[in-house]
Design a protein that fits this description.
mainly alpha; 3 strands; DNA-binding; homodimer; three-stranded antiparallel β-sheet; 7 helices; elongated; Arc Repressor Mutant, subunit A
DNA sequence: CCACTCATGTAAAAAGTTACATGATTCG
DNA sequence: CGAATCATGTAACTTTTTACATGAGTGG
């Protein structure tokens, strides 16, 4: 089964919006796809080279805006076609690994106290994430008014909020269950 | 930063419960950690060899229950120690990649109709997942009554349910937004 | 001038998936 | 006996992370 190589298309996606350098792409991925996707330089720079070799992007000519070493890339016609094709393609199954849940699963080995610590950290993490999503949402409303992408982008933020809230509610439930176990139970 | 090599510990975790073969481990991971973790044979068999070389597990002796070729492994004292240490160690940041959200993010390129298709598939996927979690929850209640791990295991299922429901609710919201866009909007 | 950020890139390692090869056992 | 399942394992490949090396420009 041919692999889908998502990184390439994420890069193309941001070049479709405007010319950007590898460094720019990294930043914009972090700021917008944020916590449901990320790309490291180790992926971006080689991918840009490959994309150029295949004619899906080309180097922006002339003096670059900003710093001297900066090299922006521009998407090409075939690049746009490849991108749109990928966007239309059904997503693969949603695989996710949640280390915290695995540790809660095995927590009978170490007792409810340790499990509660995991839950507490998980709560802090997702609390912070929710804050971040709220900030992103506010920025979107301010900076992107009128842009056709806005409703789509807000939906992705809404998903982060919905799931983040679900995690926090689960933390409440877990905390209650584990506190009762710790109070009442005899454990190793 | 030394990597944590989670697979090893998941394997140890299931050997702590009872002796199992690589094949067994694969099955039990799928059945219990299910959709928030998975291990493939390509990870399990090499990992078992390594664990044995390090003295964290050993081969079960004598004729194996079940088939002839079956080779079960048993966790050792040091293995148990290493496992408990890992279970106590704080989980790393919760990284997750949601391909569907990336495609929704870039969907302005292809219009609301395509975005709705992504949402519909996402809904079907998570609907099925919720069913699975309910089944697992029911099995837990039936088969694991009285086992000390039960409340912990139920918590992991509860988390799957909470998040799955959040995804479904988001699908409703997304569907509504996109339907409005498709009806009213002029798009490329 | 020094520290910091901007910027590009490579090399190596780690992690994970997939496909394949092999053979035993069970069930119809 | 043939098909399906049980069972183990390897090799190749893809993907991703991490660490490192390098150097230019900016601000104090």
């Amino acid at each position: 089964m041919a692999r889908s190589n998502h990184s390439r298309f994420v890069i193309l996606g941001f070049l479709a919006d405007q010319p950007r350098s590898g460094y720019d792409i990294r930043k914009v991925v972090e700021a917008s796809l944020g916590n449901f996707w990320n790309e490291s330089f180790g992926q971006i720079y080689p991918a840009l080279k490959d994309l150029e070799a295949e004619g899906l992007v080309r180097k922006a000519e002339g003096p670059q805006a900003g710093r001297a070493q900066r090299q922006a890339y521009v998407i090409t016609g075939p690049g746009r076609e490849a991108l749109e094709k990928w966007v239309r393609t059904p997503a693969g199954p949603h695989a996710y690994r949640v280390e915290t849940l695995v540790k809660v699963f095995f927590a009978p080995l170490v007792g409810p106290r340790e499990a509660r610590a995991h839950v507490a950290r998980f709560r802090a993490e997702h609390g912070a994430l929710l804050e971040k999503y709220r900030t992103i949402g506010a920025h979107l409303d301010q900076d992107c008014t009128g842009q056709p992408g806005l409703p789509y982008w807000k939906l992705t933020v809404a998903c982060g909020l919905a799931v983040g809230n679900a995690y926090l509610e689960w933390c409440d439930e877990a905390e209650a269950v584990l506190a009762r176990l710790e109070a009442g139970g005899t454990h190793a």
